[in-house]
Amino acid sequence: MANSLGTNPVIVDTAQATKLLSGPLNIIKIRWVDTGNDIADGDQAIIQDAAGAVVWQHRISTVAAGTDVQKPGAESDFHPSFRSSGLLVPTLTHGTLYLYLEQAKTAVPVKV
Fold this sequence. Notes:
Layout: E1 10-12, E2 16-33, E3 44-48, E4 54-59, E5 74-92, E6 96-101, E7 110-111
Antiparallel strand pairs: 1-6, 2-5, 2-6, 2-7, 3-4, 3-5
């Protein structure tokens, strides 16, 4: 699969250190999903704005041996929406990111 940047949600399954989208973007939700059943302990996802500042990151970690293990992936909701000047995903070890945009306050995503 390839990144799908003109949709809502924006779908990112391949890390890219260069800007994926130009803003402004108003993000209302980020979901990191274990689409290939391969997210493991230590995997991480990092999202940056157009200036390279980290705006969201998550690392999978397990709890002590013999206890429940955190379900792979993560989800964050933003109320009010989080305004970003653009989008980079320099790190995505496994899985797929879904970035839900608030349409009324988001410029049409522009592929770079």
